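Query structure, 366 tokens:
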């Protein structure tokens, strides 16, 4: 067994026992660390950086951080202080990397082999983007995209478009989007996008731009590589291009956190099978659990408060397991009746894996 990598210097405050350190820019939450309190504690939340995080000096004066708002009738540069006077909303949402579950693709696409832990349920506070847009006179005509730009300092000597974190989402995503300054009860840590982060609930992680410095309503999607060729559902073996769907809305997904194979063999007898389930862009209606690899299913019970459409729900199914090998699976149905699919959509980047079969766990019971 290779020795666990230490926490990188910018996140030494993370809970080392809860994290799998893939690289200095990719840290995953261990399945066994997801508790049953719904919200993922900040020190256990995964990290994904496409570029090194900016210098900590950007959080020295949080209220002074400025974002330029463009593509509206009265474009303006607003500070966090200005934004705090313009509105307030608090929302729980699932933040999930587009590549969460990539490690379950048998084709082993390149990229971090995330299992289930590139995700968490996080509470954000900030101003609704809607309120900011209204205050600035509304969106200009024919602007079908909302484009956010990250505040990283770009490395010199290379084409900025090839590295910058700039993402466009359909403008309808504005309806529930926030410009957030607080997460889980504290100012957003630098590593998670403080002083100011764009939150696009229901959309995959990459669309939630950290340290946002520009929010623009645009006629076209950005031509930054991270949008143009990156994060596309492209056929296996093909490079991404703008004709392939962008990684935007999340689909319904659930997984089991306990019992987990990593915790060793289980002793026969009663067990509480628990996990998390979310609908992506819709609320959760119900969750079914199978202890025979998907042949028969039972309705699980949703546990704990409902934190809204974009949060995950916990579920539990009590079962009695006999000695032997058992494959347990779970499947969520969203409020619109969409069912978590059995299979995955094969794609070169290993994105959007919400297959219940890939996420099934085989447990040995003694
Ligand atoms: N933003 C920025 N600015 N930068 C970077 O790098 N990344 C992405 C997002 N945003 C970035 C941003 C990703 S990609 C993700 S997932 C997320 O973020 C994460 O988060 P956290 O907080 O956890 O770290 Mo995949 O789809």
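Result returned for the query:
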């Amino acid at each position: 067994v290779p020795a666990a990598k230490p926490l990188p210097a910018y996140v030494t405050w993370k809970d080392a026992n809860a994290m799998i350190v893939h690289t200095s820019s990719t840290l995953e939450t261990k399945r066994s660390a997801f508790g049953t309190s719904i919200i993922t504690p900040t020190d256990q939340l995964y990290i994904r950086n496409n570029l090194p995080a900016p210098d900590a000096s950007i959080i020295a004066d949080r209220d002074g951080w400025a974002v330029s708002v463009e593509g509206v009738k009265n474009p303006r540069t607003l500070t966090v202080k200005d934004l705090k006077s313009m509105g307030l909303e608090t929302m729980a949402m699932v933040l999930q990397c587009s590549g969460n579950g990539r490690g379950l693709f048998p084709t082993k696409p390149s990229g971090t082999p995330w299992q289930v832990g590139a995700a968490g349920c996080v509470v954000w506070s900030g101003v609704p983007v809607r309120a900011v847009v209204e205050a600035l006179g509304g969106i200009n005509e024919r602007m079908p995209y909302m484009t956010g730009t990250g505040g990283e300092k770009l490395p010199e000597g290379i084409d900025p478009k090839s590295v910058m974190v700039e993402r466009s989402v359909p403008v309808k995503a504005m309806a529930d989007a926030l410009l957030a300054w607080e997460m889980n009860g504290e100012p957003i840590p630098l590593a998670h996008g403080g002083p100011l982060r764009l939150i696009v609930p229901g959309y995959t992680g990459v669309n939630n731009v950290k340290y946002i410095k520009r929010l623009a309503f645009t006629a076209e999607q950005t031509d930054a590589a991270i949008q143009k060729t990156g994060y596309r559902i492209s056929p296996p073996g093909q490079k991404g291009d703008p004709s392939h769907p962008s990684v935007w809305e999340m689909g319904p997904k659930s997984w089991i956190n306990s019992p987990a194979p990593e915790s060793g063999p289980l002793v026969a007898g009663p067990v509480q099978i628990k996990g998390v389930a979310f609908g992506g862009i819709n609320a959760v209606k119900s969750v079914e659990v199978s202890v025979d690899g998907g042949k028969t299913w039972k309705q699980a019970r949703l546990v704990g408060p409902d934190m809204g459409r974009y949060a995950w729900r916990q579920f539990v199914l009590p079962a009695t397991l006999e000695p032997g090998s058992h494959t347990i699976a779970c499947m969520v149905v969203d409020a619109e009746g969409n069912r978590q699919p059995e299979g995955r959509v094969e794609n070169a980047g290993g994105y959007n894996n919400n297959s219940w079969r890939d996420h099934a766990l085989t447990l040995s019971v003694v």
